[in-house]
């Protein structure tokens, strides 16, 4: 009769050992700056660099934050994403993004409200230029 509780305890203990420990992934990005190039009156190219990105989405988010702030600096309230190229070499990530900026909501599905995006970026700790 004592064997049953002992077996149950051993099985429970074996299950504990097989349970995977959660992976701890600390995100500590190092944002290394933004280079802006005015391509036309309402078209800007942003080059961003960072280390510690988890993937290309982190780099794209950084470029998006920079584009939103750039739009506000130029007196515009909106931007529209044209393209972003991301690459990683030896832990250094870079993004090459192009956005249009405008005072009115542009046509298209990849538009951003600059004030809303800048607020979100600040809340997330992503620098904006």
From TrEMBL:
Official protein name in the record: Lipoprotein
Native species: Jannaschia seohaensis
Lineage of the organism: Bacteria, Pseudomonadati, Pseudomonadota, Alphaproteobacteria, Rhodobacterales
């Amino acid at each position: 009769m004592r064997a049953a509780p002992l077996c149950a305890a051993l099985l429970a203990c074996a299950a504990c050992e097989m349970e995977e420990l959660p992976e701890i992934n600390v995100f500590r990005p190092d944002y290394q700056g933004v280079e802006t190039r005015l391509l036309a009156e309402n078209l800007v190219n942003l080059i961003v660099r960072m280390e510690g990105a988890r993937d290309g989405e982190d780099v794209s988010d950084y470029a998006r934050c920079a584009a939103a702030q750039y739009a506000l600096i130029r007196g515009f309230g909106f931007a529209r994403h044209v393209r972003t190229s991301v690459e990683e070499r030896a832990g250094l990530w870079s993004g090459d993004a192009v956005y249009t900026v405008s005072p009115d909501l542009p046509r298209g599905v990849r538009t951003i409200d600059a004030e809303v995006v800048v607020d979100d970026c600040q809340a997330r700790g992503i620098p904006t230029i």
